[in-house]
Specification:
By secondary structure, the chain is mainly beta. It is built from three helices and 21 strands.
Amino acid sequence: MNSAVSLRHRLTPVCAAICVLFLSAQPAAAQATGVLTGQVSNAATSIFLEGAVVEVAGSNRSVITDREGGYELTLPAGSVTLTISYTGLERQTVTVAVPAGGRAVRNIELNAGIYRMEAYTVSGPREGSAAAITRQREALNVKNVVAADSFGNIADGNIGDFLQQMPGITAVYVGADVRSVQIRGIDGALNSVTMDGDRVASSQSAGTGRTFEFEQASLNNIETIEVTKAPTPDMDADSIGGNVNIVSKSAFDRNQPRTFNYSIGGVWRPKYFTRSDNYLREPIKNIGPSLNFSYADRLGAARRVGISLNFTYHSQPGGDTAALANYQQALVEPYYVQNVTVPRPAGAPRTRLATGAKLEFK
């Protein structure tokens, strides 16, 4: 009994010394590391790059930037070499000094590589497609991501006209407009439509149902469109065919605090498929004007409040053609088929007017 008590008294100072050494070693270990943060952007367009890969040289550490191009790494104090890569842009390597127990900020701008080749012409979108391809590559499920400017000027800004260009999408027309879409051949009532991840109301112009009518929305305030064909556990189980997620523009998507864009155009239809001697003296009668305007700004001393304003107006003259066929109702030869194309008279002009506003706080 006395030996046990003696052993206990001997071990107590030893345990206390070990605890003191352990607790004193914790601040020293914390001081041996630091935090490195920053944002990755495109040097040519000032757009923050989502999905850029930031790797730490000499290790297996890597992170992927968020929508605002941000990244954060906890690293040992001292000199650290980073390698940053993004689809369509040149890989860049930078060296950063990480302070012990502190925070270092390093913003990185990526450029396109310069190669000398034979002269050739390339036309089409670049920046938006690269961003969409990167998000599709980093997705955790089967998803198609397309930038809103990938196919140029789409009709009168109807989202349905845009969606029918994507794989696995079938457009359902009502007259000359795309009213709904089918995903993998499944009716629109069995699919879901969300905006920035939130479910969009499926109000219909006639009757009731779950089908969302894309005539109600416009492409002007949209950054990208995501079509998901294999839902993940975090998504609502309310769609059989798939989900269409509309990602709206944000004031925090670009390195520039203020952006302003506009476009002006028109649609000309000369006398609805018939020539008139005085159509040059009445040019405005057959022209539908088109106007797009967008403005984004970050407010406040810290630039933490973002505002986005959008306006679009598109009009085009009515009228179309109808193809009629008349077949011979007899078995005698020779057979005949009459094909007649009839121009329908001009109806009311088709006009689309859309406005949008978005207020964000970071």
